[in-house]
Write a structure and sequence with these properties.
mainly alpha; 19 helices; 404 residues
C-alpha cells in the first residue's frame, strides 16, 4: 500500500507540475512538452497493437478448445452490451432534459470548412468493410485495432485446433515469449510514465489557456460530460455492487489506468497499463484479463455510445428532424452498434459520428463547431471507456471464479 501511495503521489505531483508549466506559456517549454507527449503517445500505440494481438492469440490458443473460453466470452459480451446500452440511454435522457438549442445557421454553415473533408463522403458501411483485412501487414502498420483483433482471433482459434506437434509448440513458444517481452517493455514504460503525465498536463493546460479547447456550447457539453459522469460514478458502481465488488476499492486500484487514459485519449494506447492494474491490483486472472481487456478495448465504448447518441440528436435537430420515441430508440441502438465498431483511438467517436451524419445528409457543420471542445470530451470519454473495460473484466473474473 505504501508503494502504491508513493506512486500515486508521484503521478499527482507530475500532473500538478505539468499544469503549472502549461500556465507559464513559455514557448520552449510548450514545444518540449508537446514533443514529449507525442513521443509517449507513439510509444503507447507501438506497444498496444502487438499486445492486443498477442494477448488474444495466446489466450485463445491455450483455452480455445475449453468451455471456460466460451463462458468468459459470453460474460464479457453481455456486460459490454449492457453497460454500453445504459450509457446511450443516459445520454438520451439528459439530452431531452437539458434540451440544448440550435446554433445560428450562419455559424453552422461557416464551420463546415473546419471538418476533415476527406471523411465527409465516407459511410459507416465503408468503415465496417475496411475492418476486414486484405493482408496481415496493413492492420498493424495502420493501427487498425479491429482488424488486428480479427487476425488474432483467427490465428488463436486456428492454433487451438491444431493437432499437437513440434510445429505447434514452436509457434506457441514464440508467441508466449513475445508476450513476456511485451509485458517487460510495458513495465519499463509505466515506470517512466510520470514524465509523460507531466507533458500531457502541460500540453492540455496550454491549449485551454490559449482558448483552443473552450467553446460556448454549454448545454451540449453538459449533456456529454453529464452522461459520462453519471455512467462513471453511478451506473458502473451499481454494476459492480450487484456482483459483490467494492466500487471505491476498484476505482482506487484502476486510478493509474484511468489517469493514463485521460491524457492519452486512447483506450487502445492505455491497454498495457489497464492490464497491469487489473492483474496486479485487482487480482484478475491472466487468462481472463488478457482476453477480456483487449476485447473490451475494441468493443466496450460507453463514452463513445453516449457521444454518438447525443451528438447525432444534436446534429439532426439542426437538420429539422422531429424525434419520436421510436426514432430515439432506433438511434440508441445505432449508437450502441456504432460504438461497438469503433476503434479505441483518439477522435474515433468523432469520425464515426461524422460518417453517420454525412450519410444521412445532416448539417455536418455542427461537428465543425464541436471540434474545438472535443479535446476535453475525448479525455473524459476515454477515461470512462477504460474504467468500464476494467469493470467488465473484474465482473467476468468474479463470475468465472464462482462457477468453477
Amino acid at each position: 500500500m505504501n508503494k502504491q501511495g508513493k506512486q500515486m503521489a508521484i503521478w499527482l505531483g507530475a500532473l500538478a507540475l505539468g499544469a503549472v508549466l502549461g500556465l507559464l506559456n513559455v514557448t520552449w517549454i510548450n514545444g518540449t512538452c508537446n514533443a514529449l507527449a507525442t513521443i509517449f503517445t507513439r510509444l503507447f500505440q507501438f506497444i498496444a497493437v502487438p499486445t492486443i494481438a498477442v494477448s488474444v492469440l495466446t489466450t485463445l490458443a491455450t483455452l480455445g478448445g475449453s468451455a471456460s473460453t466460451g463462458r468468459i466470452f459470453r460474460h464479457a459480451i453481455t456486460y459490454t452490451l449492457l453497460t454500453t446500452l445504459t450509457a446511450a440511454c443516459v445520454a438520451a435522457a439528459l439530452f431531452f432534459i437539458i434540451s440544448p438549442g440550435n446554433l445560428p445557421a450562419g455559424v453552422v454553415a461557416s464551420a463546415t470548412s473546419g471538418i476533415p473533408q476527406n471523411l465527409g463522403d465516407s459511410s459507416y458501411g465503408d468503415y465496417l468493410i475496411n475492418i476486414v483485412p486484405n493482408n496481415i501487414v496493413t492492420p498493424f502498420s495502420s493501427g487498425n485495432v479491429l482488424s488486428v483483433l480479427l487476425i488474432a482471433v483467427a490465428f488463436g482459434i486456428g492454433l487451438s485446433r491444431m493437432k499437437p506437434s513440434q510445429h505447434k509448440d514452436a509457434v506457441m513458444n514464440f508467441f508466449t515469449g513475445l508476450q513476456e517481452l511485451l509485458f517487460m517493455l510495458i513495465g519499463w514504460l509505466v515506470a517512466i510514465l510520470p514524465i509523460g503525465i507531466l507533458a500531457y498536463a502541460a500540453q492540455l493546460t496550454a491549449q485551454i489557456e490559449s482558448g483552443m479547447a473552450i467553446d460556448s456550447l454549454g448545454k451540449y457539453t453538459a449533456v456529454i460530460l453529464g452522461s459520462n459522469c453519471v455512467q462513471f460514478f453511478v451506473i458502473l458502481p451499481l454494476f459492480l455492487l450487484a456482483r459483490g465488488i467494492n466500487p471505491l476499492k476498484h476505482l482506487k486500484n484502476m486510478s493509474r489506468a484511468i489517469l493514463t487514459a485521460l491524457f492519452t485519449k486512447s483506450s487502445a494506447a492505455t491497454l498495457p497499463v489497464t492490464m497491469q492494474c487489473a492483474e496486479e491490483r485487482c487480482g484478475c486472472e491472466k487468462g481472463v484479463s488478457r482476453f477480456v481487456l483487449p476485447l473490451c478495448t475494441t468493443i466496450n465504448m460507453n463514452g463513445c455510445a453516449a457521444f454518438i447518441l447525443a451528438t447525432s440528436l444534436f446534429v439532426m435537430q439542426h437538420g429539422g428532424v422531429e424525434f419520436t420515441l421510436l426514432s430515439v430508440i432506433g438511434w440508441i441502438f445505432t449508437a450502441v452498434i456504432s460504438a461497438v465498431g469503433n476503434a479505441g483511438v483518439p477522435m474515433g467517436c468523432y469520425f464515426l459520428t461524422l460518417s453517420l451524419m454525412a450519410g444521412n445528409g445532416m448539417p455536418v457543420g455542427v461537428l465543425g463547431i464541436i471540434l474545438p471542445i472535443y479535446t476535453i470530451i475525448d479525455m473524459v470519454e476515454t477515461a470512462e471507456n477504460v474504467y468500464s473495460d476494467s469493470c467488465v473484466c473484474v465482473m467476468v473474473n468474479r463470475d468465472v471464479n464462482k462457477t468453477e
